[in-house]
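Bug #2210: token dump truncated for Integrase catalytic domain-containing protein?
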Amino acid sequence: MQMGNGKTFPISCRESMRAVLDGYSRQIVHWEIRKTMKETEVEIILKRAKEKYPNVKPRIISDNGPQFIAKDFKDYLRISGTAHVKTTPFYPQSNGKIERWHKTIKQEVFAPIAL
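Reproduced locally. Full output below:
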């Protein structure tokens, strides 16, 4: 599963979309609108995504944002038995599937309303 940072898709000045994508099917497993992306919020989003597929042991692919390298988040991953792969810094192609999804959503939503 890939976790999107949502910065590419602002809903308003204070809210952004957060999405979890299945890397195999390229389907969005779970998404939410959030004001921040602290490690506790990432944990909640991942728990909700995992609730939809309780028998799956996912591997999370994320960037090296502070919420993904925080000690509490690492503890959550260890306790939940979730593997974590961090992408190479400044190389968004490493997380390309979710990055492309955010780009497509941005084009489809904002392009029709651009004046």
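Output looks complete on our side. The mean pLDDT is 85. Marking as cannot-reproduce; reopen if the truncation happens again.
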